[in-house]
Amino acid sequence: MSKNTPQAIRGTQDIFGAEAEAFAFVVETFERVRRLYRFRRVEMPVFEKTEVFSRAIGETTDVVSKEMYSFEDRGGDSLTLRPEFTAGIARAFLTNGWQQHAPLKVATHGPLFRYERPQKGRYRQFHQIDAEIIGAAEPQADVELLAMADQIIRELGITGVTLHLNTLGDADSRDAWRAALVEHFRAVKGELSEDSQERLEKNPLRILDSKDRRDQAFVADAPKIDAFLSDDAKAFFEAVTSGLDAAGVKWTRAESLVRGLDYYRHTAFEFIPDEGSEAASRLGSQSTILGGGRYDGLMESLGGAPTPAVGWAAGIERLAMLVGDSLPPDRLEIAIAAENVERETDAAEMVSVFRQAGFVAEAFITGSPRKRYDKARKSEPAILISFDVREGQKTQSWLSTDPTIVREEEALQLLEDRWKLS
RNA sequence: GCGAUCGUAGCUCAGUUGGUUAGAGCGCCGGUUUGUGGUACCGGAGGUCGGGGGUUCGAGACCCCUCGAUCGCCCCA
Question: What is the CATH number of domain A334-418?
């Protein structure tokens, strides 16, 4: 590689081979399952006015304050490459009059951008699948959304992952709890970790899932959300949990689970690998593979009418790292080796016949004719066909290495229709 | 944004306390061999040792800067 060749941008990926196949498998599974749940597909802009995100997500969050790719366009507007889907979808809901479709179930996927330090499972351009239900205040919406998430993960063959569930209560519950937490932690501020001392001002809820030992003791006896829940909020959460049980979705209560973005209310959840599981070790420190919750306050922050909504997003790269063995086989069914230059067009014609009949087929008609058979063999086809010329006669021979995974009789009939087998 | 480790052919890696024209295996290309056969042998292409600067008679090896990757922290999907 020349030093004159431009390098890829830090934190971007050129995905190829097995990883690309796993990526596609995640997207295909998502597309298939979202149809089962009647989520409608939407395509969204990759960039929006900066205020869409700063108002929706919250100015003080890390995402907005230091991770956005923002720039001024030629017209002088401040624009931002989307760091998440929800804000843009909420904006579209308001500006396109999608209220008429409420309750609206939508799904999408694509690239997102966050200026972060790259790590395994964390990139500056990354990709998510995303599902939202807008205009539904009922706990049944939360249940449906979570049931779909659970089914997608299961159909991807991912195991050792558990749904961690919590409630943040309604706006009043959340505010009262937050105030109590600030009071609790402020009393011991000097003994908290530096990070948590800062969180105390910016995002006190996050102290609850601090990994720092110094914080753990104070987290243990911190006020619990349950003590602050209104009767309605409590009933809502109970409806969600009983709905999940009825739908057969396994979950565990995570009292200290909070979400980083300002707009969350009531239900908050993450799918996290179980400690010590294969999945956990594959993901490293990037543990959450799917996260979301209810965001009843978001529409108002964008100037819309109060509109209840729930949603989640999941990192495609992180899911792809976990699919492993469950990938559908990508097996070459038929390989044709033209072992003589005179048979190249015959082989090209025959491979076309096979492909149009729905076979995965490839012709080996380049490079040294004497080595084509070996090349074809190394591609591990279920059926290997050789086109050659022996003693002036065109010859066609075939070798079956695995008749169980291909329509062998049909394939050989197609071959015989055109050529005499030798 | 902070800390740590690392960066030699397409891939996996060797390169001894700095010392002559930088190597291997696999892969790739070509030749020979084999001729119902994933064989064996021979040959070839491909590296300004991530980039830049410095120390030295001499640097892939040492120092500084920079870019990138990986692993923590932070944050999050």
Answer: 3.40.50
List the beta strands (DSSP E) in A262-412.
Answer: 265-273, 290-294, 309-315, 334-338, 361-364, 383-390, 393-400
Measured CA to CA, the distance from residue A150 to residue A156 in angstroms comes to: 10
A138 CB neighbours strand B below 7 A:
no
Q: Where do the structural domains in chain A lie, given as residue ranges?
A: 17-170+230-326, 334-418
CA A370 → C1' B41, Å?
Answer: 15
Model ipTM value: 0.83
Q: Is the CB of A110 under 7 A from strand B?
A: no
A62: CB within 7 A of chain B nucleic strand: yes
- Residue A316 CA and nucleotide B18 C1' are separated, in Å, by 47
Tens-place pLDDT, residues A111-126? 999 999 988 889 999 9
Residue-wise pLDDT tens digits, A235-276: 999 999 999 999 999 999 998 888 767 778 899 999 999 988
